Amino acid sequence: MTGSLAARLIFRRTSPASRFIPRREVSLPAAERTKDAIAPPKELPAFDYSPLAYSGPTGDEILAKRREFLSPSIFHSYKTPLNVVEGKRQYLFDDKGRRYVDAFGGIATVCCGHCHPDVVAAIVEQTKRLQHSTVLYLNHAIADFAQALASKLPGNLKVAFFTNSGTEANELAILMARLYTGSHDIISLRNSYHGNGGGTMGATAQSIWKFNVIQSGVHHAVNPDPYRGIFGSDGEKYVRDVQEIINFGTSGNVAAFISEAIQGVGGIVEMAPGYLPAAYDIVRRAGGVCIADEVQCGVARTGSHFWGFEAHGVVPDIVTIAKSIGNGLPLGAVVTTPEIAKALTRRSYFNTFGGNPVGTAAGLAVLRVIEKEKLQENAFEVGSYLKERLNTLKDKYELIGDVRGQGMLLGVELVTDRQLKTPAPTETLHAMDQMKELGVLIGKGGYYGNVFRITPPLCFTKEDADFLVDAMDYTFSRM
């Protein structure tokens, strides 16, 4: 039995959660191992900063506490978990003072860079004055941030509701859609991830993220995936399924269609061209509203646009935002039109921490830093350069089945057979571990656990991109 076949059999027999845990070293066919010798990457890009001395508990001590006092559902990356004690810009430091290129950004969350001085200053200044104030009182921080956020959105998207996470934002968006339309049915896409709450778990369409609890009123349309989808890049063929769901699975009226412009947890999956405008038209004709989940692809991450949906030439009715907007603070938002927003006035809606002055002060600082430092432009320029370099590796290694995404939201899918597109989850875990040892941190996603998720802070440089690709090249050459 070959190493690749053994890896597939091991993958199929394990429980869903176990795909996050490394199992063994892998051995690729001899043809893959006999490539020209590749030198290990040079030293990390120059960075004029030294971390503070660390005197806290060791990684083993922290891991022991986690096992005893934290939920057993919490997992970690890498065979030897990384003990991260400090972050600065696009780099992280472990308890030994070693620096790593952070190409995961806290799961597409760190936008301006770790501990950006402007964001830190805004947090500290607000914390000194007022850490928390209920929205029952007036405070300028929440109003200033809401105004700034509205200025970044098109059309009549101008009314904000603040939450603490993307899951909360999507939960609220789905509730608002049902109240506003008077319908219950939601359409989302297969392979999507929208959160782990009661309503969002229903909208999520991957079994590995769904518990066996009641999840009603959600229909999952065929995913318009250009790489694995049955119709390739033909968006028009995929969208027929949305109409058929409405015709045969609902009363003919729906509450909403929710989607990401680029699926994040699903493995950085882009949509087939032309799909989103057609889907929006069909849903609106059925009385529904369109929700753009911008939790991962929004806030300048794709580079070409500030919001992922803008690349498709559509204007949603509701936008959900989180992750990057707080640069690491728990901050989320739902932005919609005044008409849809009124639906929540039929009863009382309240969120104790939504709109917290510290969080909204940080959010406003994030928007200002993005503009001041031209981080959207940097995401486009450096992201395009990085994607081009990753595509050169695809030409070199059969292990890479696809390179996709935009800006600082990129995916590299690993397969053991390009024709069959056989997922390579074990090889993916092995490569992640080896790259970590070289000083590069990346994430992982996709239903099969075989996609590198590359979502660094938007201040990532071409030198960082080169180091990442060189580390990946060296790793693949030795597998």
From TrEMBL:
Annotated SUPFAM superfamilies: PLP-dependent transferases
Keyword field: Aminotransferase, Photorespiration, Pyridoxal phosphate, Transferase
InterPro entries reported for this sequence: Aminotrans_3, Aminotrans_3_PPA_site, PyrdxlP-dep_Trfase, PyrdxlP-dep_Trfase_major, PyrdxlP-dep_Trfase_small
PROSITE patterns the record matches: AA_TRANSFER_CLASS_3
Claim: Transmembrane helix is one of the keywords in the record: no
Keyword Chaperone (UniProt): no
One Pfam family of this chain: Aminotran_3
Cofactor(s) listed in the protein's UniProt record: pyridoxal 5'-phosphate
Single GO term (MF): alanine-glyoxylate transaminase activity
EC number(s) from the headed UniProt entry: 2.6.1.44
Name of the protein this chain belongs to: alanine--glyoxylate transaminase
Gene: LOC106758593
